[in-house]
Automatic annotation (TrEMBL):
Segments of skewed composition (Basic and acidic residues): 15-25
Composition-biased stretches (Polar residues): 1-11, 26-39
Keyword Transcription among record annotations: yes
Keywords noted in UniProt: Transcription, Transcription regulation
Organism: Parasteatoda tepidariorum
Keyword field contains Transcription: yes
Family: Belongs to the CNOT2/3/5 family.
Protein name: CCR4-NOT transcription complex subunit 2
Length: 103
């Protein structure tokens, strides 16, 4: 069971624990190796036990959010988009995946 979680974005570190919640602008806190770590090549390490690790779980969401921050042009579908406004019939019995664009 992991009690501390660090989330880093743009040099800021949000550290949560049982005892405290605070933001730190100290760049040295970013070098700590606690919490989920993602590398530039897309590898995800230091995953807490019990975390869903497939691309549709929390790690996939974290990777998506970080990609959206650094490369907004690569993200073609924003979180929270209503797929019916894109012309998808969600009530169909046919597969929807042929309607999605590919890289």
């Amino acid at each position: 069971n992991q009690e501390n979680v660090n989330i880093t974005t743009s040099g800021r570190c949000l550290e949560t624990s049982k005892d405290s919640n605070h933001f730190s602008n100290d760049k040295s806190s970013v070098t700590q190796k606690r919490g989920i770590q993602t590398s530039k090549d897309g590898r995800v390490t230091n995953i807490p036990p019990g975390m869903v690790t497939d691309q549709f779980g929390m790690v996939g969401l974290l990777t998506f959010i970080r990609a959206a921050e650094s490369e907004p042009k690569l993200v073609s579908l924003a979180l929270g988009s209503d797929l019916t406004t894109l012309g998808l019939n969600l009530n169909t019995t046919e597969n929807l995946y042929p309607n999605f664009s590919r890289p």
